[in-house]
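Our platform keeps sequence and structure together, in a single record for each protein. Nothing more is needed to write down the fold, since each code stands for a local backbone conformation. An entry from our holdings is shown next, in its original layout:
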Amino acid sequence: MRFTRDGLLTAVIVVLALFLGSQVVQLIPSPEEQFGRPFEHHATVGEAVEVRTGTLSVNGVQTSREVEIHGQVAATTALWLVVDFEWLAKDRPSPYAASEVRLLTPDGRTYGGVGPVPVACFPGQPHITLGCQALIELPADALEGAVLRFPAALNSELDDVVIVDLGIDAARAAELAQPAERIQLTGPVEQP
């Protein structure tokens, strides 16, 4: 068998195409991976994000060792992270479950859930923006580089989710780790 220059070139091109094709296929997620994860919308503090059920924006965070709502006080030896956010329901009255908000750390830890102080963002009416709060108990070392995860609806882990980068660097984390006073939680408030 004799190889010609054209034959050798064709063989090299075919081998190279097979190699590149296999590399590209590895980069494409499988259907199981694609359907097994939520659709993420990334944002920063102050940026409004539209999801299936409404529009959400985080206005800021603050910390305390004590929080109070309706005369009920909750204290911790760690920190309470109070997240101030706005919720605008889309087409129909829609509550926002503040207990579904999670804080995710760069090293993979997750904080949040139902706590000892009831906070809620009651059903918002379409075209009426509600100012709401979420409450998360966490250690001070969870602040730097943390992001917040807001699902579009109650129990909707595989639905639309908003991932908000809080922009907390080492200096801001040190500042938040030294809260000064008790925070009075407000509950949902209609925004002008």
User: Anything to note?
Assistant: The longest strand covers residues 72-89. The first helix runs from residue 5 to 27. The helical segments are 5-27, 31-35, 170-176.
